[in-house]
Amino acid sequence: MLEKQIAEARAYPAKVLLIGEYAVLYGGTALGLPYNPFRACWAVGESENPQLNLFLEFLKGKSELSQYLDLITFESDLQQGLYLDSNIPLSSGLGSSGAVVAAVWDRYGKDKQNLQLREIFSQMEGFYHGNSSGLDPLIIYHQKPVQLSNEGVSLISSEIPFETNDYKISLVDSGQKRDTHIWVNKFKTKMENSDFKNAFHSDFLPSNEQIINAFLNGESDKIFSLWKSISAFQLNHLPEFIPEHIKSKWLTEHSAFKLCGAGGGGYFLRMENGVNG
Question: In the listed set 96, 127, 155, which residue is the last one of a domain according to the structure?
């Protein structure tokens, strides 16, 4: 019975923070997308589940969470060999822990229409990160683009393509693990410098808002030049967030890199001008 249920279950994609790294911490907007080339799915077999078992114990100890989840069935399924088969890279900013949260909620959540879903996800993902915005599991669970701003979270119904006639976006693996907390703290320290803070608000945030509007409005002809503006700002003001072997090819006439989340390692985003680069 469990095998049949698992065979019919859906997969849970990775997520990419396309635009808005650090902006969302200081009054700006972020745009995150599901990324299907990496995904997680339930499976049954001999694989051990140390992390899932620890996650289950964490959830049991949180009364504010356990009331929303069928943890009895979750525990029974784990005892029958349930595990999450995932190729989402760890410590790379692609939502590996968010996929676990989304998968557990999708299978064991009692109220799928819960209006406090982001808060629930935030608390669940606290097992992995201590503090979490809940954004990654939200993107992965709904499998739709999500816009996050001071006004809250909005699901985007239309697709945001990674490739058009005007641009092509790809993920580039730096080959280096990263600790998000370290780089977020580095950024917060930089914001204590008035020159950096002024440049961030006058140069970075306007480009950030404009490119999100261009993505949402389908104005693909505007996107590459705005992407290059963000790329140039990060190269000039955040050079320590870029590994040297990525920095050497960061910005050219027809190609531009930008951070994919916190920076410092993990994956980076590259945009080429047109499908032929």
Answer: 155
> 162-205: per-residue pLDDT in tens?
999 999 999 999 998 888 889 989 999 999 999 999 999 999 99
Q: pTM for this structure?
A: 0.85
Query: Other CB atoms closer than 10 Å to residue 131's CB: what's the count?
Result: 9
Sign for the CA dihedral angle at 146, 10, 131, 198 comes to: negative
Enclosing domain of residue 261: 167-273
Domain presence at residue 43: yes
State pLDDT tens for residues 55-105: 999 999 988 888 899 999 999 999 999 999 999 988 778 989 999 999 999
Q: How far is CA 174 from the centre of its chain?
A: 17
Cβ atoms < 10 Å from Cβ of 185: 12
The alpha-carbon radius of gyration of the chain (Å, integer) is: 19
- Say if residue 248 is in the same domain as residue 148: no
Concatenated DSSP letters of 88-129: PPTTSSS-HHHHHHHHHHHHHBS-TT-TTHHHHHHHHHHHHH
Residue 144 lies in a domain: yes
Question: Which residues face 13 on adjacent strands?
Answer: 39
